[in-house]
Predict the structure.
Amino acid sequence: MENLSQLAAFKSSPELVEKLIQFGVQKSFSAGSVVLQEQAFIHSIPIVMKGVLKVTRTEEDGRELLLYYIQAGESCIMSFLGGLYKDTSKVCALVEEDAVILFLPVEKVSLFIHEHPEWLDYIFRLYHKRFEELLEVVHAIAFKKVDERLLLSLKKKASLTESQVLRVTHEQLANELGTARVVVSRLLKQLEENGVVKLGRNKITLV
């Protein structure tokens, strides 16, 4: 098993780490895999040990919108809430970068809240971070132009993957931004002409 105790969120609680290892189930996923479907009932909470997940929501017209990313040591707060209240998932979680995930049964989530104060602190910290990220999404949609949002998205991906070469299609970017592929392709061409990016087959390099 990946070393859970080395993740920043759990370093201070070896007893909690032991419980997570005891009750959790570890699985590996390749990029592009779906970890959580919209409208699916939540039976376990994913804790990312390695890799990156992206969380999206599909609108009624079929457009997707990228909400936030989940990195190593983090979980999906929407899964916590859906699991605790026996509700269906309102989001979809996909693997952005090959990942190792620990799945914790939902019945253990509330038990750990009572037994381990640091577990509750972990949930609140995640909730706070996700809330701030969702506020940023709302602000970007309301006040930023699509070209600004596109560049911010590219820089975020580069930061998460620690690489200036991004393996992503124009279609994927369009889905994440909730716009049309032709719009993204046109804006990427403008960025290339301005020397900001270099376009290749299914990849974009930040210059």
Notes: Residues 26 and 103 are 6 Å apart (CA to CA). The chain has two domains: 4-141, 145-206. DSSP finds seven helices and eight strands in the chain.
